[in-house]
Amino acid sequence: MNMLIEVVALFLGFVSWIMIFISLQDQHWRESTQDGSVILTSAIYENLWMSCASDSTGAYNCREFPSLFALPGYVQASRALMIASMVFGTFGLAATLAGMKCSKIGGENYTLKGKVAAIGGVLFLLQGLCTMIAVSWYAANITQQFFDPLFQGIKYEIGEGLYIGWGSAILAICGGSFLLCTCRMTDNKIITYPYQPPSGGHMLSTVATSEPVPSNYERNAYV
């Protein structure tokens, strides 16, 4: 049963790791809103790296953000968290592969493999937390600007890239939790050994005596 849970945890971690790249490549982290617009001639959508604009004919043009320091603080923080999430996910996959019981890596030292698998679970949890914080922080700024009546700039709505990020975070947290649960279940098992009575350094004689040994010797027994 533990081996099956480890396989499921590895699958969830791998899928969440792939979804991070999909989310980062998706250009629709936020999209200009159509609320209150009678005639829509263009749409603007952005992610952490670039801004794109499309017109009614379907033509679009994208440009990368020219300066990192000119970006808002939450965008810079989201970039750093997503990069950290990719790093945690990469090392989490490597540790999980090495710590699985069905893996030949590391031999048959299951105690050590269990500790390595637990490290993989912690790394998956860190991956999920970093992704969740980055995506939620970005979405919070979108909703704050959208419902702010004093905001004079372009208002945006949540794009599909954020939903992919949320899905990646949930899968990574589930995979890390499964790995930690399997390691805890393995530690709680009581290992029993066959009983072997101690010898105490005494050896039993196998030679049978035909006559009983007298406890007291008489004086006339000696010549």
From TrEMBL:
It is found in: Cell junction, Tight junction; Cell membrane. Its main location: other. It comes from the Eukaryota. One of its GO terms (cellular component) is plasma membrane. One of its GO terms (molecular function) is structural molecule activity. Keywords: Cell junction, Cell membrane, Membrane, Tight junction, Transmembrane, Transmembrane helix. It is a multi-pass membrane protein. The chain crosses the membrane at residues 7-24, 77-95, 116-140, 160-181. PANTHER family: CLAUDIN. Claudins function as major constituents of the tight junction complexes that regulate the permeability of epithelia. Belongs to the claudin family. This is Claudin. It comes from Amphilophus citrinellus (Midas cichlid).
